[in-house]
Each structure stands twice: as structure tokens, then as C-alpha cells.
Amino acid sequence: MIARYAGGETGARAAAREGAAVVVVDAYRATTTIAVLVHKGARAVPVASIEEAADYPGADFRIGERGSAKVKGFDFGNSPTEVSAAEMKPGSTVVLSTTNGTRVLEAAEGAAAIFCGAFVNASAVAEALEGGAYGPRVVVIGCGWEGYRSSEDEAAAGAILHHLSEAGAELDERAERVVALYRRHSKDVLAKNTAARRLLRLGYEKDLGFCLAEDTVPVVPRLLDGAFVVD
Hints:
Elements: E1 2-7, H1 8-17, E2 21-25, H2 30-39, E3 43-46, H3 50-55, E4 61-66, E5 69-70, H4 80-85, E6 93-97, H5 101-107, E7 113-117, H6 122-129, E8 137-142, H7 151-166, E9 170-171, H8 173-184, H9 187-190, H10 194-201, H11 205-212, E10 221-224, E11 227-230
Parallel strand pairs: 1-8, 1-9, 2-7, 2-8, 3-6, 4-6
Antiparallel strand pairs: 4-5, 10-11
């Protein structure tokens, strides 16, 4: 199996065109939140726009975030700690729209399989992909922030690629670089980057520790029929 790294919507579209399995990583916070939702037994429906989320029929809960801030009138603001603490019946339909993550997920449409990865489920996602279970090519996509790279997404992608490499996957040069970033960047450094400071200003300090913890939500969210569910 060959595992690669790519960034943003452009990388997601290219991976889908080549028929690879795709793992989308938005560690602060969309894919972490989706992992929590799936762990609670919910169906997590990603949509690109706030309007789509607001008008989505049959949603039990709505999650909306722009610029890291909660969208007015929505139930939650893309906070994995808020979602983790919320009462939510298994089988609930939760629609969410975020600044970066849900746009990149939409760009990956047509891929052989689409998964959500983060620090919290890095080992579980890698284990699910081991041995080419979803095809011989895997591309891990770091979402970034509004078209720019983000160190937390690259490091979380590096965690997944590190586990894949240990299981025998062949990494390309760019994937090797993000694995090196994962090994080099301590959680203390990531907790002080630009994205982390933005979350702190908005009062989401608890989310930082949650998002940076490894393998605490051992689920594999896979997109099936428009919703992320346990694979």
C-alpha cells in the first residue's frame, strides 16, 4: 500500500480523481468533533454552507462554526467537549458546517472511501486502512486554515501516516515530512500555535487538550450515504 499526504480542497479533489481512499484531518476541530459524534452513535452529516445546515431536513442537532466561533442559532459550535458532554440519543442526525473541514470533505467526493482522522483516533484509522483494505492507495489530507497550512493538521496527519508506515505502508516524500513534523512538534508547541490562540480567545481552552490527546476516541468515522457512521 502507498500512503501520501496532500493539503486542502485541491489535494482532496486530486485524491478523489485517482480513486484513492481519503482520510480528512481537521484536528482543530471538525474531524475531532465528528469522531466524538460517531462514538456517541450519531449520524454526522457534513455540509459546506451554513444555509444547507440550517435548512437540512430531519436534523436533531445543528453544529455551525465560522472563524472558530459558533453560528448563532445552532445547537453547538464545533466543540468536541460540548458535544461529548451533551445528551444525544444514538441514531441522532447531526448536521454540521465548519470553516474548513466540511469544505474539504465535500471536495473529496468520489474517493474510494472517505474517513475522518485526528489525533484522537489516529491509531484506529490507520488500523482500518492497513493492508490495503480500501484499495492500494491512501491519501491523508490536512485541511489547513482558509487555504494555508496548519501545523496541527499536518502533525495529526503525520500520526496516522506514522502508524501506517509501521504497518508496512510505503510513504512518499511529503508524507515522510509530515511524519517528521509529528515526531518533532510537541503538544505544548501545537497548543500555542495560531489556531490554538484563536480558540483560547473564544473560550475553547478545554477543546485544545481534548483535540491534542491521542487515541482517546478509538472510532473510524466513514462517510456512507452522506453521513459519517462507525465503519
